Predict the 3D structure of the following.
Amino acid sequence: MTKHERIAEQTFDDGDAAVARIAEIYERNTAFIRKNFDAFLEGIAPDERVRAYYPEIAIETTSHARLDSRYAYGFVSGPGAHATTLTQPDLFGRYLRQQVALLIRNHGVPVTVRESEIPIPVHFAYPDGITVPPDGAFPEGRPLRDLFDVPNLEITDDSIVNGNYVVEPDGPAPLALFTAPRIDYSLHRLQHYTATAPKYFQNFVLFTNYQFYVDAFCTLARKLMDEGSPDYDCFVEPGNVVTHNARDGKAVREGVPVSRLPQMPAYHLVSGDSSGITMVNIGVGPSNAKTITDHVAVLRPHAWLMLGHCAGLRNSQKLGDYVLAHGYVREDHVLDADLPTWVPIPALAEIQIALEMAVQQVTDLSGYDLKRIMRTGTVATIDNRNWELRDHREPVERFSQSRAIALDMESATIAANGFRFRVPYGTLLCISDKPLHGELKLPGMANDFYRSQVDQHLTIGMRTMEILRAMPSDRLHSRKLRTFSEAAFQ
């Protein structure tokens, strides 16, 4: 087996030093894989299998005590050994330093950094993607997996997140919600689906189901860059096209736009500390909503919100009114195997308050007057876009029994995955049609609606993120999203 000598394990009582050692192991081991693979593509086959391992961090405690019980994260669930594999420390450096420092502080014991027993797949040794022959042919006709490790889906799953992970006898409990291979898989999928690098994703994420919102976001972002905004350093579009802030001169645009937009294009107002805003056009349907949140979740954002259009179900509602979801009817079906439908998806007070404050500030309405344009209630999410073409007496009866006030195809999925992944979530929808009351979404009416409401709706969403950004992260990440035996990392 082609390998190099393992780096000896070491204990640390300083988070920065521990993360520096993690980075050392990761960089050395991935460089080793890349060197051998690049040589292989040049026709120099290794004599033996090329293998190197992910770094791992571990802690062992003997007490149930911890320093501060107000935190939702930063401590292990009980005495014993806990560990996790780690990847891409350059991308996760700030996050890892915070999590490891909390762990050391809360338990008063050092952490151990070592090489794990989980091999790094050759694909994941290239954070920006691997380059292989277009016909898949390799030197000497040997299959890739004969010489290099490839992704193993048997260990790339969400069993920790879903609460059905089985700890091996005498093995460590999980220290984080995601293993290194699971994270690497999602980082590569993110780049594929959104055409932007994971490093540009920000901690506050807006999801939408209409290009109109993206167009408005881009217009505003470019204006902020031209004006030298103090809050954002650059604006990034698909293809990693970067418009730099004009603080020191003109807003310069660098890069080549993609010739064709990806499935779910992402746009980023980037801040140096990742506290900016990302917007993703997820398109229509719960499958896309699950797909993108499955992958964004590994970046551990501080909040994500759904801003989109919905069908109003009450005759008292008007086109352009807002719906602030405080509950969800889940008929999307895409998460049934991961999160049973009997699990309640609660409204999060911090998000609800921020959303309502943002609506008040943008519309200049408050108190009882706010009820003229916004209603709080249950949103039903369904996987059949043309439900109106059925005999809809039965679904309408269900919606009425649930007290639903709006219907869409994404919001419950995004909220449920936020709940599942411990990412604070919220929904603010805008009513674009009222199919039960004869106001269907038709071209002329829809265009007038989009022109009049999109800018205001987007402004409300961005103002919400600014309010949440000003909140300490330990307040935003709620204890109500944590399970009985929870991983320590947020």
In short: The first strand starts at residue 10 and ends at 12. Residues 82 and 172 are 5 Å apart (CA to CA). Residues 10-189 form a domain with the amp nucleosidase, domain 1 fold (CATH 3.30.1730.10). The mean pLDDT is 89.
